Amino acid sequence: MAEILVVDDDTDIAAALVDLLELDGHRVRSASSGVEGLARLREQLVDLVLVDVEMPQLDGPGMADAMLRDDRGLEHIPLILVSGVDDLAAVARRVGTPYHLAKPFAFDTLARMVERALREKVPPLRARPSPDAMR
Amino acid sequence: MRMMRKTRTPRSVRRVVGAYLLLLAAVAALASVALAVSATRLYRLTDDLSQIADSLGQAVELENALSAHAASRSAADRDVHARKIARLLKDIEGSVGSEAEHDATRLVHVAVDAYLARPVAETADAHTAAAAQADAEAALIEYRRLRAASVREATFRARRWDDAAIIGALAIVAFAAGVVVAASRWLTRDCVRPIEALDAAIERYVAGDRRATAAEEGPRELRSIARRFNQLAAALQRLERRRAAFVGGVAHDLRGPLAALRMSVEVLSPARAQNVDARRAEQTRERIGRQIDRMERMLWDLLDASRIEAGILELHVEENVDLRALCRSVHEMFEGASPLHELRIRVEGNVTTRCDPARMEQVLLNLVSNAIKYSPNGGVIDIAADDEGDSVVLSVSDHGVGIAAEDQARLFQPFQRAGLSGEGIPGVGLGLFVVKSIVDAHGGAITLESTLGAGSTFRVRLPKARAGVAVSPASPELPASPAEVPVVAH
Predict the structure, then answer these.
(1) CB within 8 A of B48, min separation 6: which ones?
(2) Within an 8 Å CB–CB cutoff, is residue B259 touching chain A?
(3) Which residue in A64, B29, B314, B488 has its CB near the most CB atoms, within 10 A?
(4) Is the whole model's pTM more than 0.80, yes or no?
């Protein structure tokens, strides 16, 4: 029973995910771009975000970046990266989240990962650049 | 041998082989000339010797004739002998000899003449006749002595020539052997080894080492062959990479519909049946249908793209196709497909043209679904057809996210995907590649105008007159340069 946000530019995938997660008892909202996703988060914080990698305008890692730099609590939200790209593990490492799933997946697999993420609550970890490195 | 290192421009095979043949021919000529010279020399000597032998014989005969003349009793006898003596004298004088021998011959002549001039009467001075005869004989002996000396000299010269000829022959053989060894080493290095190296490189490539290259060395033609082989191998590798990217792209694009399909089926599973109401079930079934449509479109795009790559895309061109009707039918197809978007049509002028209607519908469909994808927040999408005199222009505009200038050219190439993290466009897929190919095949052109954040407009210009340039077969020199599509970016 958690608040979940699904972000994917493929509306069919987003809708199907919403359906399945709602049927599992969660409260789910969706967004079709990184920008829209951030807007939703600013309206209301959630317990978990499922985000696609490849999206126009602002992609998954971009959105994760924005969340990390935010200081209204967005940086504590665990992320599950969902995508069809080949090197998803590498992308997940860069973003700093341990949760990722390659499309197409069985819903069981996703459900287990959702449950795990909600239980462990590990937010994306990324080394903050030191002030020296910024120069 | 080092002096023939290849720092100058490569010679051709003809010249290399020709040079070596010329060298060998020169050696052979040298040997022949030496042989001829020796033979001529020895022949001359032999000739000399036989002449000397002849003249010695004649001198003896002359002596005998003189004696016979002196001993003859009658004038008739003496006449006969005198004529013989005269003839022999002439022969002796005719034979070639040294200065000394010519002098001796003259002396003989004088002495014989003196002897013949002596009167031979009984009353004559017998003593004087005998003395004259003795003089003549003495002159002959001197002559013979000199001739004998010539023989010895000639023999000596002949032996010297013989030795010289042997030494010369040995020298020429040694020299020829040296030349042959050097020539074969040079030829091996200049021609044979480069050929073997080239053969080995090709062998390695065929055996599977796709990075085997041939060294460009040896005569000009061989370098050219090696270079072309390397180019071919590189082009093949590019082609293979292109194919791999293609297949990878297809696989990537299929994941979306497959994921949506799998989850939709999951929704309809019996375990959830009691929680799924009729509306949700209906939506899910529609979703399933849409995924199937998507995959079917991908399949057709894939077939088209592969035909385009093979150069066998065919158009079924019709005359007087009304693009207004085309726009309307596409508009209907998208009716209700996306509630966020409003599709508008605008048609100006006479927009009938010669084209393949099914393919142009495909083009419009593709452009409209692209417009929808690039305006995820909804908005207006304008479909327009304009009459511009000698051509018609179809355009599709959206007010969505726009496309960055550096990404625009890549849109029209198959499966060009930029990197991640906001670097570019997700899943370009095949759609626009196929669209461009169809437009090109009509003899038309497609342009893109786009501003990041404001939207994009795709314009397809079709000439009303004779259309149809067949799509050219893909050569190994493709991939096409990004500069093929004119882009107008603000």
Answers:
(1) B96, B150, B154
(2) yes
(3) A64
(4) no
